[in-house]
Design brief:
Largest sheet: none
Strand content: under 5%
Helix content: 55-70%
Shape: elongated
Number of strands: 0
Length: 76
Amino acid sequence: MAYFNNLTEKKQTEILTLLNSKIRQESETMYQTALPRAKTDDQACAGRWYELREQWQNGEVNNLHVYACLQMDFVP
C-alpha cells in the first residue's frame, strides 16, 4: 500500500488542500461548541479530519484510507 511519502509533491499538495478544507470546516464548528469546555484552543480544534491528516503524514494510515474518507466525506 502507498503512503504519504510515496506520492509526488503535487499529489500530496492536492490531497492536503482537500483535507485542510475539511479541517477548517470541522474546526470552526468544534471551536464554537467546544470552546467553553476546552482548556486550550488546540483542544477545541483537533477533530477527526485533523487527526486523519496527522496520521496520514506520519505514515500511520495509507492513501486508500484517505481517499475513501474524502469520497465518503466522513472519517470513521
